[in-house]
Amino acid sequence: MGYDKEDRRTGFDLFERCREISALQVAGWLGLKTEYRSGKRWACCPIHGERNPSLMFDKDGRWHCFGCGRGGDAVDLWSAVYRVPLGIAAREVMKRTGELHLYE
User: Quick one: 64 exposed, middle or buried, by C-beta within 10 A (0-12, 13-18, 19+)?
Assistant: First the structure.
């Protein structure tokens, strides 16, 4: 994930917890429709827009788009879709889990 471990705005523990959340779960929160193909889940990329699914979710909870080349973890996906910094994306992801209060 592209963040600085010394980022004190959200705290390192927040990012550690976010790593436990899969990008596929975030895709569900974003309303992305996925399909199962070749042993993996695929969706149309909400970042660059397309008709054929090129965004792949792997078994490690990460994502990669073969169309635009972007990828990462759950926080990276939220950050890319909403065009917000990683610290804000991490807080938003944790709000969705109901656990944000543990990190404030």
Answer: middle
Length of the chain counted residue by residue: 104
Whether the CB-CB separation of 54 and 67 falls below 8 Å is answered with yes
The first and second tokens of residue 85, run together, are 């910094």
Rounded CA separation 18/91 (Å): 9
Q: What is the H or E stretch that residue 42 is in?
A: strand 40-43
Instruction: Average pLDDT across each block of 10 residues of the chain; the chain has 104 residues. List them in order.
Output: 45 77 96 95 93 95 97 97 95 85 62
Three-state secondary structure call for residue 56: strand
Residues 82 and 92: beta-carbon distance below 8 Å: yes
**CATH fold for domain 23-103:** DNA Primase; Chain A (3.90.580)
**Whole-structure pTM value:** 0.82
Q: Is 69 left (phi over 0), alpha (psi -120 to 50) or beta?
A: left
